[in-house]
Each structure stands twice: as C-alpha cells, then as structure tokens.
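[Discussion] Sanity-checking designs against the backbone

I'm trying to build intuition for which residues belong where. Below is a structure token string of 270 positions. I'd appreciate it if someone posts a full sequence so I can compare it with mine line by line.
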C-alpha cells in the first residue's frame, strides 16, 4: 500500500485525502454513505489525472464501492458494539444483496455510457429528493424471509450500479418492515459490506480485459483513488459522528440533498 501511494502525485493524493475526509465526516454527521459524495467528486478529479472519459463513470462507481469495503467494516463494528444490528434480518437480506451487487456490476459494464449516465443521474436525483423531503414509509408488519431476499437483489443491483452502500434504499425499507430507525440504520450499514465486496469483485472481473483503463487499476477499480480516500475517511468518520451532537444535521442534510439533485442534473446534461 505504501508503495502504491508513493506512485501517486502529491497534489493528486491530497485531493483524494480531502475527498475521503469530507466523505467520512458526511457519513458520521448525516448518516449517509460516502459513495454519494465520492462518485461525483471522482467524476471531476479523474479526468484531471489523465483517465479516459470512455469508462470514467464506471471507474468512479467501482472505486467508490472499493472504498466502502474498508470503511463499512469499522462502521459495522461500532453498530455491533451498541447491539443495534439485527443480524437475522441482515442474513435474510445478504444473499440477495450479494447477487444483486454482482449483477449490477455486469449490468453497468453492459450498458452504454449514455444509458449508465442516465440511470446514475436519475437515481441520484431521486435519492436527493427523498433525502430533502425526509419522508419515511409507514410501518408495516415484517414480511416472510423470501421478501427480504427479493428486496436484497433490487437494493444490491441499484447500489452497485451507482457506487453506494445501499443505505438510501435499505433504511426506508427496513423501517417500513417494522424496524426502529436506529436498528434500520445499523442493519443497513452491515448490509453495505456484502454490497461493496460483491460489487467491487464484479467490477474487477467485468473490467479485467477492457482497454483504455488507467495503470494501477484492477478492472474498473482505480486503487490510488481508493486507498487515498480510505486513509482519511476512516479517521474523519468519528469526527462527523461527534459533530452530529453539536451541528444542526437536519439542515445540513437538506443542503446535501440539494447538492445531490444538482449533481444528478449536471450528470444528465453534461
């Protein structure tokens, strides 16, 4: 890892570290996955370091998922220590999450650049609108295990295709299925790990023989950006969690939601 970082230009490394710091703070402060911030920033940064536009969005999505593999581990441990993860629901969701995330990586690779851009932009706009409105579905009784598996496939597929850990989708669903909000967030955080792992592996395999990919990458995963972001995000997430008790996070969440809608629109028209 040290050898890899040594091959990154200092300015480039600083940008990745700054991105990871902001993503970590947002994750701790607002309870949103860093992927919603990381992917848009990578779309701006990667062309500046010479990455071809042909696979730009796919590389940004895959690299974001790779960072979530590392950051979600510490998040899951913290939630588990507080006894907030409902592990039986996690295991009911996980097979679908893994299948969906793996499938999502190959669907993203199969889609044309234009169609993937359209899907990403629309998904980010919808997530931003839901976050801004702050509405949660009404509580209902928990369904059978098969429903969790089916939902997991959908959540995993969409999350993998836009480079997130799935919290924006799984938290409202778990809350709807008679899970308290705290435990829904914790269980969703645990679900981000199988999504990130399966999605990352899927993007590595699907992009293995692709041309015009940058050096120091495995398939679509660009490791210099991934490791640079992880290094700082792991340290800054606890700071964000601490600030959550001081800063008016609800107002900041609305600003971030507006940012997401703006990014989605920019991706669609750009």
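Best answer:
Here's mine. Compare freely.
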């Amino acid at each position: 890892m040290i050898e890899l970082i040594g091959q990154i230009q200092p300015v480039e490394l600083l940008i990745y570290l700054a991105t990871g710091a902001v993503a970590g703070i947002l994750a701790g402060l607002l309870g949103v996955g860093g992927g919603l911030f990381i992917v848009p920033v990578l779309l701006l940064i990667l062309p500046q370091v010479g990455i071809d536009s042909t696979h730009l969005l796919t590389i940004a999505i895959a690299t974001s998922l790779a960072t979530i593999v590392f950051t979600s581990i510490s998040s899951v441990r913290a939630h588990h220590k507080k006894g907030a993860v409902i592990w039986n629901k996690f295991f009911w969701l996980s097979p679908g999450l893994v299948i969906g995330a793996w499938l999502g990586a190959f669907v993203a690779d199969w889609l044309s650049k234009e169609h993937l851009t359209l899907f990403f932009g629309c998904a980010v706009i919808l997530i931003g609108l839901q976050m801004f409105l702050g509405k949660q579905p009404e509580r209902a009784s928990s369904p059978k295990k098969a429903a969790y598996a089916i939902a997991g496939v959908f959540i995993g597929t969409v999350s993998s295709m836009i480079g997130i850990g799935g919290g924006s989708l799984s938290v409202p669903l778990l809350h709807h299925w008679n899970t308290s909000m705290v435990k829904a967030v914790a269980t969703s955080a645990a679900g981000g790990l199988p999504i990130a792992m399966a999605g990352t592996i899927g993007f590595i395999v699907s992009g293995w023989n692709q041309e015009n990919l940058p050096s120091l990458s495995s398939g679509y995963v660009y490791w210099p950006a991934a490791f640079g972001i992880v290094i700082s995000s792991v340290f800054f997430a606890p700071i964000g969690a601490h600030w959550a008790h001081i800063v008016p996070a609800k107002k900041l969440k609305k600003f971030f939601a507006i940012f997401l809608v703006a990014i989605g629109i920019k991706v669609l028209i750009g």
